Amino acid sequence: MALFISTVLGFSVVMGIVGYAILHFFGKGMNSKDSTTIDPKPFQ
For residue 17, which phi and psi values (nearest 5 degrees)? Predict the structure, then answer.
């Protein structure tokens, strides 16, 4: 029973860390305020 509980808790901790990392890096990379600075609108 202790093995089951430690496995579930460890898996939950790992999934939480992975989820936080994904949200952290995608949140920084998808900043729409700087989109014109990174890729300026072409002039015609």
Answer: -65, -45
